[in-house]
């Protein structure tokens, strides 16, 4: 596969000057994700224990988070020395995703699951150019399911054990949305547990679940996989209909963003009214592919959001 000129067409028809071979980046990221997966599944008990917390006692970090990020960044920076790297574990307040080709990496998305040995953990490797996600690889080393997407070339799920690869969405029928009351929705607690954002989240969840007689949407149910990347991949598969969250960062969503969009899904703001958002928006509503009704389901969902989330980009 030759070089691609990325046109950054996600609603912004800007011509990019970067020539980047997205397929070869994807191949490298898949190989790294598999090797990082070994580091995660073979981590000792102490390396899978929370050694530190970030902003509060629910925001965990283990030795393995740092070791995996170091492994990935070292390899990528040797092979692509002119590109940038934005990773969860080396992020410092004030760092921003720029226009340069940038690897956007969460070494362990689902650290809380990892600490508790709940097997929904992923390595989330994204690549953005002009701030537009172009390549995404998400690998759960416990289930051996790997998702990848390349802008303009589709997205796929691979069973790493058997080598079987299927194009996304796996639910090829792309059922029309008939209303929020027929949907299965992913939500996440995240680590912020107070203030306006927590109020908006908890009141919105209550509305989504409540009966129609009591003013709710009465969705079929809610799920929380504990990894933003895996939630996005499940929406890309079509096994979850929607995913609503505030608080996650570009490294949690960059890879899943490509995988979802290449599967025909869409991603808009978690706050009502914003249809076009950047990858570091921090408030998201992801919607699976559908023959019809995507716009209507977004509008219906927004009608149940209680207030607004105020996470700063
Ligand atoms: C977290 C997970 C979680 C989401 C949080 C993220 P981490 O990432 O994706 O599902 O609710 O917003 O920060 O900390 O496990 O890398």
From TrEMBL:
Say if the entry is tagged with keyword Glycosyltransferase: no
EC annotation? 3.1.3.25
Looking at its record, which EC class is this enzyme?
A: hydrolase
Entries under SUPFAM superfamilies matching the protein? Carbohydrate phosphatase
Task: Give the metabolic or biological pathway.
Answer: Polyol metabolism; myo-inositol biosynthesis; myo-inositol from D-glucose 6-phosphate: step 2/2
Reaction(s) this enzyme catalyzes, per UniProt: a myo-inositol phosphate + H2O = myo-inositol + phosphate
> Which molecular function terms from Gene Ontology are attached?
inositol monophosphate 1-phosphatase activity; metal ion binding
PANTHER family reported for this sequence: INOSITOL MONOPHOSPHATASE (PTHR20854), INOSITOL-1-MONOPHOSPHATASE-RELATED (PTHR20854:SF4)
Q: What is this protein called?
A: Inositol-1-monophosphatase
Organism annotation? Cyphellophora europaea (strain CBS 101466) (Phialophora europaea)
């Amino acid at each position: 596969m030759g070089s691609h000129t990325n046109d950054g067409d996600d609603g912004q028809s800007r011509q990019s000057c970067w020539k980047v071979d997205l397929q070869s980046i994807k191949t490298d990221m898949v190989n790294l994700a598999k090797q990082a997966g070994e580091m995660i599944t073979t981590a000792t008990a102490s390396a899978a224990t929370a050694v530190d917390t970030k902003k509060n006692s629910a925001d965990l970090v283990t030795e393995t988070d740092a070791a995996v990020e170091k492994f990935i960044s070292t390899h990528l920076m040797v092979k692509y020395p002119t590109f940038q790297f934005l990773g969860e574990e080396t992020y410092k307040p004030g760092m921003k995703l720029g226009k340069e080709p940038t690897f956007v990496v969460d070494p362990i998305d689902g650290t809380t699951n990892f600490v508790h040995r709940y097997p929904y953990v992923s390595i989330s490797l994204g690549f953005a150019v002009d701030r537009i996600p172009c390549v995404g690889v998400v690998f759960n080393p416990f289930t051996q399911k790997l998702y990848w997407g390349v802008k303009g070339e589709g997205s796929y799920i691979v069973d790493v054990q058997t080598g079987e690869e299927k194009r996304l969405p796996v639910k090829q029928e792309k059922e029309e949305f008939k209303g929020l009351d027929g949907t299965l929705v992913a939500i996440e607690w995240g680590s912020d547990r107070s203030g306006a954002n927590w109020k908006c989240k908890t009141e919105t969840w209550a509305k989504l679940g409540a009966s129609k007689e009591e003013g709710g949407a009465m969705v079929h149910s809610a799920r929380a996989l504990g990894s933003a990347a895996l939630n996005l991949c499940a929406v890309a598969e079509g096994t979850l209909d929607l995913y609503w969250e505030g608080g996650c960062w570009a490294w949690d969503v960059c890879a899943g963003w490509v995988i979802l969009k290449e599967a025909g899904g869409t991603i808009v703001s978690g706050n009502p009214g914003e249809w076009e958002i950047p990858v570091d928006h921090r408030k998201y509503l992801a919607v699976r592919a559908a023959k019809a009704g995507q716009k209507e389901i977004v509008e219906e969902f927004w009608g149940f959001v209680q207030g607004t989330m105020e996470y700063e980009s």
